[in-house]
Amino acid sequence: MQHKTERRRRDQGFSIQARLSSFRYAFYGLMTMIIDQHNARIHLVATLSVLALGLLTGLKSFEWLWVFLAISLVWITEALNTALEYVADAAVPETNELVAKAKDVAAAAVLIAATFALMVALWVFWP
Ligand SMILES: Nc1ncnc2c1ncn2[C@@H]1O[C@H](COP(=O)(O)OP(=O)(O)OP(=O)(O)O)[C@@H](O)[C@H]1O
């Protein structure tokens, strides 16, 4: 049996309106993350600070590339971590050992990205 959402998507076909809605949902997702997650707000402050510092110190093109890569990795991992938390909480609201492991591993992804971002920041801004 075909999944209901999959069937509905095929029935609708392509539309510019639907594509624009996808962007809107993605933007809502970003806002939800910033409003709900303390870590995302810390990432926002760090991102704005690094961008300001980069402009003030006049980073070279290749240094900006590393900075953008680091910033993107942190936001992507935080978004996936947050999405996993929502799905896990919806599917298993009670305490569960596997949910704990899944959330810990997802948080580890953010930690790895944040460590990489810190190394990039030290490399490009160290006098
Ligand atoms: N349903 C659950 N069952 C067991 N342990 C859980 C459960 N939910 C959360 N935990 C534990 O609490 C930790 C924090 O989970 P929570 O959902 O509160 O995320 P958070 O506070 O937003 O953390 P993060 O900083 O990773 O975003 C998890 O990494 C996990 O160890």
Folded structure, characterized:
ATP binds at residues 9, 25, 85, 103-104. This protein has helices spanning 4-12, 16-36, 38-57, 61-91, 97-125. It is 87% helix and 0% strand. With 127 residues, it is an all-alpha fold. It has five helices and no strands. It has two domains: 1-36, no CATH class; 38-125, Helix Hairpins, CATH 1.10.287.3610. Bound molecules: adenosine-5'-triphosphate.
Strand content: under 5%
Please tell me the overall pLDDT. Answer: 92
Can you tell me the CATH architecture of the largest domain? Orthogonal Bundle
The small molecules bound here are: adenosine-5'-triphosphate
Membrane topology: Multi-pass membrane protein
GO biological process, one term: phospholipid biosynthetic process
Active site: 78 (proton acceptor)
EC number: 2.7.1.66
Could you list some keywords that capture this structure?
single chain, 127 residues, mainly alpha, Helix Hairpins, 2 domains, 0% strand, globular, binds adenosine-5'-triphosphate, transmembrane, kinase, ATP binding, metal ion binding
What's this entry about, in short?
With 127 residues, this protein is mostly helical.
